[in-house]
């Protein structure tokens, strides 16, 4: 992630009692690393699970636990602490605290601070599955949503009590991603983005194949940026070892044909298609069913190749195509080859880079090719560049590209 994507944001991080408090140490580290200032406020119950000293060390700010704290000059911590905040985040949010919020109760510093706030409130629930499923809890959750409170999670999985089900708090990284997404401008709100990323793998036999050096980092960064911009994102990924961006639906494939088929099954619902994947141009006509053995007597194997389907061109040729964006990784003469490829694929926008110089790296430099112009973007880390590219794509969406 870009280290400054929350630069200038001031968050009040409210902690209530629960074993998930241990996750908040890592969440605080991620938020501060991203440039946010974090003011921790803890209920008395939260201090039974993790100490204020720990949270002060991680946040770099004094921790508040009492509404009678004399360190605030006017002795009104419940008012002053939230006045400069861009948001209040309650994590973990216990069953009891959800009930307090839903009914406007204000019997300690954190609940009073939430009632007196004039900034957004984000809540990250954490509780046993039966407590989450309880009708009273579900009524409280519905009321909070109706009141404009943003709920992040909960997740489903193993719980500290040994049971499995809904109610588990999101992991620290997922909570960070959700908070970061909350603050991102929703320039693609309501849009559906279909995106390919990574290499493809064309088998020669069950253990060998033809692939390329694409890491998938640029495509995954774009998927994350599109989701944060408010889009519903469907990511079709070749064989890469990358975490799925939060809130993104991921579909894994291996071969170019599988990627083509996955795209063509879903493209009718897409408003935007971004072909980032480095797709193999050819495949072996008849891959061996068994491992090709190397022996002294056997001649070198020979292969007959056939052309793979052109995914980007197939999308562009549809009767009613989405806004199609292509990528071109060239080894030289990018200015020439990039525009040639855009015209050949018949897409409105093509993003070119010198692939062999950027494969696997965390930064990139690209040129935007469109009819009559070529625009170079400043070199940046791939996540920063992805946000810039999503902004460029959003600006170019035609008025006729209606939400379907």
- Average pLDDT works out at 90
Tell me the number of strands: 21
Give the percentage of residues in beta strands: 15-25%
| Highest-level CATH class of the largest domain | Alpha Beta
Q: Share of helix among residues?
A: 25-40%
Shape: elongated
CATH homologous superfamily heading of the largest domain: CoaB-like
Oligomer state equals single chain
How would you characterize this protein structure?
The chain has 404 residues and is of the alpha/beta class. The protein folds into 2 domains: 10-183, Rossmann fold, CATH 3.40.50; 192-396, CoaB-like (Rossmann fold). Helices cover 33% and strands 22% of the residues. It has helices at 21-33, 52-59, 77-83, 95-103, 109-115, 129-133, 135-146, 172-183, 217-228, 256-266, 311-316, 334-345, 355-358, 382-396; strands at 10-15, 37-42, 87-93, 121-125, 150-151, 155-158, 164-168, 192-197, 202-203, 209-210, 232-237, 249-252, 272-275, 282-284, 305-307, 323-329, 349-353, 363-364, 367-370, 373-376, 380-381. The two termini are 31 Å apart.
Primary descriptors:
alpha/beta, Rossmann fold, 2 domains, 21 strands, elongated, disordered C terminus
Topology of helices and strands:
Layout lengths: L9 E6 L5 H13 L3 E6 L9 H8 L17 H7 L3 E7 L1 H9 L5 H7 L5 E5 L3 H5 L1 H12 L3 E2 L3 E4 L5 E5 L3 H12 L8 E6 L4 E2 L5 E2 L6 H12 L3 E6 L11 E4 L3 H11 L5 E4 L6 E3 L20 E3 L3 H6 L6 E7 L4 H12 L3 E5 L1 H4 L4 E2 L2 E4 L2 E4 L3 E2 H15 L8
Parallel strand pairs: 1-2, 1-3, 3-4, 4-5, 8-11, 8-13, 11-12, 13-16, 16-17
Antiparallel strand pairs: 6-7, 9-10, 14-15, 17-19, 18-21, 19-20
């Amino acid at each position: 992630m870009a280290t400054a994507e929350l630069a200038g944001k001031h968050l009040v991080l409210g902690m209530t009692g629960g074993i998930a408090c241990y996750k908040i140490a890592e969440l605080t580290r991620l938020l501060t690393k991203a440039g946010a200032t974090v003011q921790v406020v803890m209920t008395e119950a939260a201090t039974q699970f993790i100490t204020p000293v720990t949270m002060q060390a991680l946040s770099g700010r004094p921790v508040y636990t009492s509404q009678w704290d004399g360190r605030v000059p006017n002795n009104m911590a419940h008012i002053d602490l939230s006045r400069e905040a861009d948001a209040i985040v309650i994590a973990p949010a216990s069953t009891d605290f959800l009930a307090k919020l839903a009914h406007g109760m204000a019997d300690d510093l954190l609940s009073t601070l939430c009632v007196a706030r004039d900034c957004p409130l984000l809540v990250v629930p954490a509780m046993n599955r039966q407590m989450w499923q309880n009708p009273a809890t579900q009524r409280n959750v519905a009321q909070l949503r109706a009141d404009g409170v943003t709920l992040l999670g909960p997740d489903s999985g193993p719980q500290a009590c040994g049971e499995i089900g809904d109610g588990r708090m999101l992991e620290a990284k997922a909570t960070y991603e959700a908070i970061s997404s909350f603050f991102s401008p929703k320039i693609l709100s309501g849009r559906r983005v279909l995106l390919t990323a990574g290499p493809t793998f064309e088998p020669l036999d069950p253990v060998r194949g033809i692939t390329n050096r694409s890491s998938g980092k640029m495509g995954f960064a774009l998927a994350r940026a599109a989701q944060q911009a408010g889009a519903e994102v469907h990511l079709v990924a070749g064989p890469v070892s990358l975490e799925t961006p939060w809130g993104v639906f991921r579909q894994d494939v291996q071969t170019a044909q599988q990627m083509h088929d996955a795209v063509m099954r879903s493209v009718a619902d897409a408003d935007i298609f971004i072909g980032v994947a480095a797709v193999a141009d050819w495949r072996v006509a008849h891959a061996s069913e068994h491992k090709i053995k190397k022996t002294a007597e056997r001649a070198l194997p020979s292969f007959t190749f056939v052309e793979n389907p052109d995914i980007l061109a197939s999308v562009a040729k549809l009767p009613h195509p989405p806004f199609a964006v292509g990528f071109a990784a060239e080894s030289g003469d990018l200015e020439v080859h990039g525009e040639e490829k855009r015209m050949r694929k018949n897409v409105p926008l093509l993003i070119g880079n010198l692939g062999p110089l950027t494969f696997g790296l965390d930064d990139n430099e690209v040129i935007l090719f469109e009819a009559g112009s070529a625009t170079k973007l400043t070199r940046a880390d791939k996540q920063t560049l992805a946000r810039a590219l999503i902004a460029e794509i959003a600006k170019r969406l035609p008025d006729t590209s209606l939400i379907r």
